[in-house]
Amino acid sequence: MINIKEHLKVKVSLPTEVVKRDGYPVKFQLYKLENVLENLNLEAKSSTLLNTLLASFNGQSSITAQELSQKMVEVLEHFGYQNEAQAYLTYRQKEEQSWKEQTDPRTRLERLLSQDPELVHENANKDSNVFNTQRDLTAGTVGKTLGLKLMPQHVAKAHLRGDIHYHDLDYTPWSPMTNCCLIDFKEMLTNGFKIGNAEVVSPHSIQTATAQMSQIIANVASSQYGGCSADRVDELLEPFALKNYHKHLVEGAEFIDSQEKVEQFAKKRTKKDIYDAMQALEYEINTLFSSQGQTPFTTLGFGLGTSWICREIQKSILRIRITGLGKEKRTAIFPKLVFTIKKGVNFAPTDPNYDVKELAVECATKRMYPDVLMYDKIKEITGSFKVPMGCRSFLQGWTDENGVEINSGRMNLGVVTVNLPRIALESHGDFDLFWQIFEERMNIAKTALDFKVKRVLDATPENAPILYQYGAFGKRLKPDDDVSVMFDHERATVSLGYIGLYEVGTVFFGPNWEKNQEAHDFTVSIVRSLDAHCKRWSKETGYHFSVYSTPSESLTDRFCRLDLAKFGELKDITAKEYYTNSFHYDVRKHPTPFEKLSFEKDYPQYAAGGFIHYCEYPNLKQNPKALEAVWDWAYDKIGYLGTNTPIDHCYKCGFQGEFKATARGFECPDCGNHDPKTCDCVKRTCGYLGNPLQRPMVHGRHVEIASRKKNISSEMR
Questions:
Q1: Is 548 annotated as catalytic?
Q2: Name one GO biological process term (predicted).
């Protein structure tokens, strides 16, 4: 790309801003005019045409988008480029027609009715075959078109073009819902709550406590659109299990004379109660359906409690997961399990809970979960320790007006993701132009995120009583209270997402840049700049903006598909037909876990609002110490680590291991079975597990798996 300023024949005063069609002023960007001429095959004439075009502005500091388009046509016609002028007008007309179609509910409903895979299989956690999911998809389809009309038009068009992605458009901004949260279970279980017509009091046993938790999860999931987590569930449930123990002490004393034997009896009975309660919770979560037509995305964090009750809760969670669900002992998809490793608690053989860590390792080799949090590193990166909300969204350290650290009861207000590969492609390898376009996209993303916050503030406590009035968000508001007290002073987070650092590096340094220090530093500088923008926005607004390593799911396909149409087939970038999630190592390569984690470890310190690392392994069931060695090595280097290992099981022939990816999907390599009724095929999709045989994704992650055969997903390595 030529340097326009150097080719202008006369000095002209450039406008400083362009007023978009929705009245929003944006910075004037000279490169956009050159892109128009390049698309019209007039790049060789750009200096003459641009000089004339800019001179026609007569020194105006501000022009409208309509004026700019009109003058472009006039200049093209003046130089005799009638066909090009008509092509430009046709492009503008098509863009406006596309806008009308995208914001017409009837058009999108027709696509849904025809089972358009892009709509039907957009979310891997939704089974589009069932009625309540179909109902939610229908409502979401209408919600998207109305939401696009609600937000600033230039933001909506940037979303439709693929410059950014306004997440969860089926729910927001049409509804003032919040995203994911850490439920304040302690407050609710201690002080009681109300669901529907029932006033629920504090439980007197662990069985009742877990039953109440499942009801809370179902209602919270139906009142927001993101995941929900229970932090330190072992310590949370300890007081209620202790009530069981005291009851059994009384019961045992009636029939047993020896105090020692009474205590043994009570402990044995309590351990059974704990196991039954945790098993019930696992089954209840997996059988729940929220109003969105999906199993609530639930995360349980545990591992730090050292009392015998906490230890028993931890062991029960892991043993139940190892055993599996139902008569066929299938791998449970939810809840997502997150086990915390902490030196002095469970890290080394001399630590009191080391045996629980060994059980966690065994569980991960057989069921992929639990993921692990490294206690000290999480505190270093995020400012306090807590489990993620959903699959990877982290709250930042925060204290209330009394200086008390608060984690549970806080939430996220939404995500907007920037298409970084597109910026790199538009810059044509010019670093200065990359940063210029980057700043423009930051401004669009900021406007989009501001709108997310603004819309959430329109909610009233009565819209979601479980969240605002009955303790899930910590504070209990009255029906007419202002909900902003839940979010301001950086109590809530709002997330700036990103995708495709690998592709960005490839544009500038070629496809094998992972060991190139200059390339690595450049990609780190991008995430560092995202973080700097978020810090500035937080100071300006009072809301905590944070960088989020987006779990892109179908977005890896959507952005790439749009860029393939825009830029054509580019080797190692758009030709792959997918983009790489966040900061992850190129999925097509095969680094060791140590190489991969060494490469990725520098990014999360600037993406503290959301991150996770994955390593892929062969079958580890016979070698759990190999997995533990990676966990131990990673402890001081990364904060959050997931395991990917083959755990597929064919009940027809008995095969256990990794199913073969074929053009028609996954199948048993021994007998060819691919019937979800007689096989258990489990893959990790963007932070959580899923069964691609039961929930196919035609344009998304799972067909990508089958068509590429060797790769599980761009998150898997």
A1: yes
A2: 2'-deoxyribonucleotide biosynthetic process
Catalytic residue among 175, 229, 393, 714: 393
Known catalytic membership, residue 671: no
Give dist(CA 621, CA 668) in Å, integer.
Answer: 19
- List pLDDT tens digits, range 651-705: 999 999 999 988 778 999 999 999 988 999 998 876 668 777 654 433 333 333 3
- In the set 72, 151, 177, 180, the catalytic residue is 180
- Chain segment 324-344, per-residue pLDDT in tens: 999 999 999 899 999 999 999
Catalytic residue check, 603: no
pLDDT tens-digit readout, 254-272: 999 999 999 999 999 999 9
Is residue 140 assigned to a domain?
Answer: yes
Residue 132 maps to a domain: yes
71 within 8 A of 79, measured Cβ to Cβ: no
CB-CB neighbours of 337 under 10 Å: 26
Q: Are strands 640-644 and 371-374 parallel, antiparallel or unpaired?
A: antiparallel
What is the spatial distance between Cα 503 and Cα 431, in angstroms, rounded to a whole number? 15
Q: Is 412 a catalytic residue?
A: yes
What is the Cα–Cα distance from 174 to 144, expressed in whole angstroms?
A: 8
List 188, 278, 389, 650, catalytic entry: 389
Find, among 683, 499, 711, the residue nearest to 587 by Cα. 711
Range of the domain at 140: 104-150
What's the pLDDT at 661?
A: 84
Establish whether 310 is a catalytic residue: no
Number of H-type helices and E-type strands within the chain = 25, 23
83 occurs within a structural domain: no
553 included as an active-site residue: yes
> How far lies 225's CA from each of 367, 388, 389, in Å?
27, 16, 12
Q: How many domains does the chain have?
A: 1
Which one of 369, 548, 585, 688 is the catalytic residue?
548
Amino acid at 275: Y
Q: How do 493-499 and 412-419 pair as beta strands?
A: parallel
| Per annotation, catalytic residue among 179, 244, 552, 644 | 179
Residue 630 lies in a domain: no
